[in-house]
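Entry 14. Structure prediction run on the chain below.
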Amino acid sequence: MAEINWEEFGKLINSKRKEKDISQSTLAKDIGVSQPVISLLERGSPIGINEERIDLLKSKLDISDSEIPQKEKVKVSTKRKRAFISYSHKDKTYFDRLAVHLKPLEKKGLIEAWSDTRISAGELWKTEISKALDQAQVAVLLISADFLASDFIVDNELPPLLEKAKSDGATIIPVILKPCRFVREETLAKFQAINSPEEPLIAASEHESELIYDAVAERIESLL
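Output returned:
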C-alpha cells in the first residue's frame, strides 16, 4: 500500500465507479466505510482504507493489480520540510483544529508547520513570512470568502506559493472551509482540494471534519 500513488488511484476509482453507475454511498456500504471516506479516497487521501478494503474495492470495481498506479520515489531535501499554513484570521478556529492534527508530526520532527502565529513580538513580520514562504515545500490553504477577500493573502502569500508550485514543485493543498468562489478562481481551482467544494467543512459533522483534518495531515506526512 505504501507504494500506491493515491492521487492517481483516486481518479481511477472515481472513473470506474462512474462507469458502473455506483454511488459513493453504495460503494462505501459495500466495503464497510462511511461515504466521506470514499469522497476523500477519490481525492487522493486513503484515510480509513486498509489492504482488505483495497481488495474489496478492486473486486467491486474490477480493478486489476496492473491498473493500480505506483508512486515514484522522490528524495526530499531535509531543509525543506516546512508546511506553510495560509488562512484568514476570521477562520482561526479551523486553523487551531488543523494544528492539533499536525502536532504529532511536529513532535516526531517530521515537519515544521509554519503560520504567522510563529512570529514573535518585535520581529519583522513581512520578512519572517517571506522566509517561511521560500522554505515551504507544502502549503495548506484554508479557503473561505474571508481568505479570498484578504488583500495580504492574495497579494503577498499566494503569488510566491503559486510560483513555487510552478517552478520548484511545491505542493498546494486547498481545504474548503465555507462556500466561496474557489472553483471560479482559475489560479486556485487547478489544485485539487482535500474536500469537495460542494462539501465544505462548515457543513460537515464532527466526524467528517476530523476525517478531513486527518487527511490533510496524512497528505503532508506522505509528501515530507
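The chain has a mean pLDDT of 86.
Filed with the rest of this week's runs.
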